[in-house]
Amino acid sequence: MANAKPSSDQYNNVVNQQPVLVLERLSDELRRKLASQAVPVRILAEHPELAAPAAAMLSELGFRAVCDSEPGVEPELDRSLVLIIGDRFSPEFLNRVLTGPWTARLERIALFGRRIGIRTLAALDEIGFAYIVKSLPTPERLASILAAVDSSTTAAHQPPIRRQATCSTIEAGYDRLFGHIRAGDLGAAVTEARHAFNHFEALLDSAAAAHWLSIIQDYHDGTAQHCSLVSAVAMLFARSLGFSIDDQRRLFEVAHFHDVGKVHVPLAILDKPGPLDPTERTIMETHALAGYDILARSGLIASEVADVARDHHEYLDGTGYPLGIGAGQIADITRIVTICDIFAALIEQRPYKRPKTAREAYAILQLMDGKLDATLLRAFSTIAESCSSD
Ligand SMILES: [Fe+2]
Ligand SMILES: [Fe+2]
Hints:
Layout: H1 11-17, H2 20-24, H3 28-35, E1 41-45, H4 48-60, E2 65-67, E3 81-86, H5 91-99, E4 108-112, H6 118-126, E5 131-134, H7 139-149, H8 160-182, H9 186-206, H10 209-216, H11 222-240, H12 245-257, H13 267-270, H14 278-285, H15 287-296, H16 303-311, H17 332-347, H18 358-367, H19 374-386
Parallel strand pairs: 1-2, 1-3, 3-4, 4-5
Helix pairs in contact: 8-9, 8-11, 9-11, 11-12, 11-17, 11-19, 12-16, 15-16, 17-18, 17-19, 18-19
The structure holds fe (ii) ion (2 copies).
């Protein structure tokens, strides 16, 4: 791990004056060489249009910049500085970054754009980028991202007011979503869900998972809490699996709508402060097919959203409900939601029961031998770990 990541007291400087201060924090020797143009700054950009402003900025600062795409240019990699500028670090770009010759021993800077996820950031951090700076950050987002890769920055820069606001927005959004579903206005519900995706992105980028999970766990409405947890955990999982932004949206949408059939379940059962009796359980289980009916008949939403609403309680060994289908008929996207759904249900905060910790919940998932997708479940261990508050 490279040392000298931005510390908490450097944070404000990074926000206000980056990237000049970042360059100032290079070793004196490298800085001298860069300033004398003995070695160039090598720029690797996810999109060509990101490279030009950086090159202009560097030459204004007196440095020589070389774009990675320039033919015939072979900067002295063992001594040069590499400036990596991404938008959202697509899997292809991340692969270029992680397999490039600069991954030997170098001081490096990664400047990154709006859509980079915390997992990607963690991957960049893991291979030892000395400085990771967001190109167009809000202070809260940069602080939280730095917090995600360097826990020493967490305490000083938690943005509690903004996080609470985002969470309230999400909870209110669920209220409206279910209102639209009850009113039979699926079009409005779909629009609501698309807005919600942006709020969840902001939430995930706002702090470490354990922090925002604890806020969602304080929601008063149990169904909103559950659906928010499933959606947020699913997004986290999608990011860690390296999903494209489009696939992240797909997974978010199916997770967001997975329990809409609960609008037909009486509140007395939904909010019952204790275990359900067999009759109540049967009524509760109707939500899967009810959700499918609501979503499939509309024609306003992808068919997989309805399929996941119907199938998310099915198990690979055929012991689930409502149809008891087996592995051959359960889509991958459903398998992902099922894992997130059970995990969320276990860590939910309800007045009548102590929530499981993330680690306890993951241990329970591991005991569901043959019911859940083993490969996905293994991959999910990193999510359970990042949701853990200890
Ligand atoms: Fe469900
Ligand atoms: Fe659920």
